[in-house]
């Protein structure tokens, strides 16, 4: 009896690329909207990184599973959500339909396996309105701490309409600066780190939950550095640190560390995920 889970990708049904291509066309309104969101909002770019890693893992993974009829329902629901939102002029509301349809198609064709397919959930950043509706986060708590320290040294500090003001320099603070995007990025990297090595959904979830809290700790450190730069008068550099440098440096360090661990352990799976065959 053939083991479908171990069937080589080259023997996959020839209709597989046609199905994925048709799905991409159907989802194109939301895909284009998401691309604009990734490029236009710096805080959303970590989600692009996880999405790219998930796509690469899906491309390289050779496992197959038996087709599941539930996938058709998920594909229909995801495509319907995207098209209805686009037709109503609210394309961004259709973004959740993307991972729904992608997971569904993975179940239909049997590839990629579910743990890797679920990485598509990290492609869609949470709505900024949702982040703003959360209780005040690290950016507010540490901002007040920075104000207290500044005033203790006889400086001028306050929260103004434009943001945090320290000694006349102003730093705009947004809801994403509270650390949620960074925590979600680390959760996605944790999930990817297990899924790409053959981990189950449960294994991947555990890895995601272990890594996510470190995102908040990293964000706290980044905010402290940004406030120190603001106090030194480098408001532009402080904003650039929050927007661009922090998540990129952290992701690079984690990926480099994961690669080194894999090499030390002699694991071929990581190299396969990056496109290097034995």
Oligomeric assembly: single chain
Which radius of gyration do the C-alpha atoms yield?
22 Å
Low-pLDDT parts are 1-11, 264-268, 273-278
Query: Count the strands?
Result: 3
Helix content: 55-70%
Spatial sequence of strands, sheet with the most strands? 1-2-3
Distance between the termini: 28 Å
Largest sheet: 3 strands, antiparallel
Q: Structural class per helix/strand content?
A: mainly alpha
Secondary-structure element sequence?
HHHHHHHHEEEHHHH
Spatial shape: elongated
The count of domains is 2
Percent of sequence in beta strands: under 5%
Helix segment tally: 12
Q: Round the mean pLDDT to the nearest integer and report it.
A: 86
What does this structure look like?
The protein is mainly alpha-helical and 278 residues long. It folds into two domains: 1-123, no CATH class; 134-278, no CATH class. Helices cover 65% and strands 4% of the residues. It is built from twelve helices and three strands. Strands 1-2-3 form a three-stranded antiparallel sheet. The longest helix has 31 residues, at 201-231. It is elongated, with a radius of gyration of 22 Å.
């Amino acid at each position: 009896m053939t083991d479908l889970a171990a069937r080589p990708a080259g023997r996959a049904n020839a209709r597989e690329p046609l199905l994925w291509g048709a799905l991409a066309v159907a989802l194109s309104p939301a895909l284009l909207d998401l691309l604009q969101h990734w490029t236009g909002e710096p805080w959303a770019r970590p989600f692009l990184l996880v999405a790219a890693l998930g796509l690469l893992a899906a491309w390289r993974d050779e496992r197959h599973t038996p087709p599941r009829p539930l996938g058709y329902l998920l594909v229909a629901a995801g495509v319907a959500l995207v098209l209805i939102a686009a037709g109503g002029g609210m394309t961004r509301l259709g973004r959740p339909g993307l991972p729904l349809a992608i997971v569904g198609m993975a179940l239909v064709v049997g590839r990629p396996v579910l743990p890797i397919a679920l990485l598509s959930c990290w492609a869609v950043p949470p709505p900024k309105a949702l982040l703003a509706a959360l209780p005040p986060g690290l950016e507010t708590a540490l901002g007040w701490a920075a104000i207290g320290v500044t005033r203790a040294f006889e400086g001028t500090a306050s929260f103004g309409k434009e943001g945090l003001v320290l000694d006349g320099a102003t730093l705009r603070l947004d809801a994403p600066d509270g650390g949620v995007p960074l925590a979600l990025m680390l959760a996605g990297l944790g999930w990817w780190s297990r899924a790409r090595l053959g981990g189950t959904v449960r294994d991947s979830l555990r890895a995601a939950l272990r890594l996510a809290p470190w995102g908040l700790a990293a964000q706290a450190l980044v905010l402290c550095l940004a406030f120190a730069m603001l106090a030194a008068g480098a408001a532009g550099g402080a904003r650039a640190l929050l927007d661009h440098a922090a998540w990129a440096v952290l992701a690079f360090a984690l990926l480099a560390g994961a690669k080194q661990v894999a090499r030390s352990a002699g694991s071929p799976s990581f190299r396969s995920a990056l496109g290097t065959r034995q």
